[in-house]
Amino acid sequence: MAGAYDDREGVIWMDGAFVPWSEAKVHVLTHALHYASAVFEGERAYGGKIFKSREHSERLLTSCDLLDMPHPYSVDEIEAAKAATLEKMGMTDAYVRALAWRGSGEDMGVAAKRNPVHLAIATWEWGAYYGDAKMKGAKLDISKWKRPSPETIPSAAKAAGLYMICTMSKHAAEAKGCSDALMMDYRGYVAEATGANVFFVKDGEVHTPEADCFLNGITRQTVIGMLRDKGVRVNERHIEPGEMADFQQCWLTGTAAEVTPVGQIGDYNFEVGELTREIAGDYEKLVRGLVPA
Q1: Disulfide engineering: 191 pairs with which of 28, 85, 97, 147, CB 3.0-4.6 Å?
Q2: Any residues with CB less than 8 A from the CB of 161 and at least 6 apart, and which?
Q3: Cα–Cα distance, 11 to 20 (Å, whole number)
Q4: Is the pTM of this model over 0.90?
Q5: Is residue 139 located within the same domain as residue 249?
């Protein structure tokens, strides 16, 4: 599948029915378009099975709660809709996007209690998020934008509006020849990339920012569990930017990113070392069902 995302072959599940891909539209006065009242999940299917599918569906509804949006469907209904969409599209290895948003209704101001909440599910083929970086290591810029305080945003929600500064940061990074950007948090600590969590290695131990003001990714949690099962010490803590000078390895985690090695962040360089390659390989086996979950 290729071409613009609004004009492709296939169908998209919308509010309980399959709609031809190019006809899956919303009105220009949709509340989410004006006020970012939307939440979503990015998921991957491997061999016809969505990895940690139910956890993603549960998080979607948690995000709805955090944005004061009624649940359009139950977890079981979302699970059934995702499975049906994959089957209808004839896909086994695919990216899955579930999106809930406030639509058009009687309200067109900041408040929107009378507007219905909709749900859509789309699937498409999507290869490595960072291209050949999975082999040689991604190059990251350092963003001028910071992840905001949880007192200013619902940082535990996977909400569309929270990605605005991520888009701006990634555009600036790509203009410099980088794959992505690393963002600091509102206090100046290392936070995350624009769509992935970050891990570092020093002297056999792993260090990763404490997820206290950004999304605690499902892949992040999975990888932490895998590392601890292997007997690797994982330190979840606040990390000063200058500490990157002493870290030997680095990788990113996310549903789209999977486990992607990082070779450079700003002026800091990292090797694609043994632990990085090992955890990337172990994750690949896990998502494809080659080892027990």
Answers
A1: 147
A2: 36, 38
A3: 4
A4: yes
A5: yes
Q: Which amino acid is at 83?
A: A
The predicted-structure confidence for 187-245, as pLDDT tens digits, reads as follows 999 999 999 999 999 999 999 999 999 999 999 999 999 999 999 999 999 999 999 99
Contact by Cβ (8 Å): 66, 156: yes
Residues 93 and 171 in one domain: no
Query: For residues 111 and 23, what is the distance between their CA atoms, to the nearest angstrom?
Result: 28
* Interatomic CA distance for residues 249 and 231, integer angstroms: 18
Q: Which residues of the chain have pLDDT under 50?
A: none
Q: Taking the chain, what is the end-to-end CA distance rounded to the nearest angstrom?
A: 30
Say if residue 237 is in the same domain as residue 113.
Answer: no
134 has catalytic annotation: no
CA separation for the pair 148, 180 (Å, rounded): 19
Instruction: Tell me if 292 is assigned to some domain.
Output: no
For residues 156 and 178, membership in a common domain is answered with: yes
How many domains does the chain contain in total? 2
> In which residue are the tokens 């507007």 written?
115
- Find, among 209, 164, 172, 204, the residue nearest to 190 by Cα: 209
Whole-angstrom distance, CA of residue 7 vs CA of residue 180: 27
DSSP conformational letter for 173: H
Residue with tokens 């059934």: 80
Phi-psi region of 257 (alpha: psi -120 to 50; beta: other; left: phi over 0): alpha
pLDDT computed for residue 129 by the predictor: 80
The whole domain housing 42 covers 11-124
Residue 185 lies in a domain: yes
Whether residue 225 is contained in a domain is answered as yes
Q: What is the reported pLDDT for 293?
A: 65
Query: 79: how many CB neighbours lie within 10 A of its CB?
Result: 17
Angle at 272 between CA 225 and CA 249, to 5 degrees: 60
Catalytic site residue from 158, 170, 230, 285:
158
276 within 8 A of 138, measured Cβ to Cβ = no
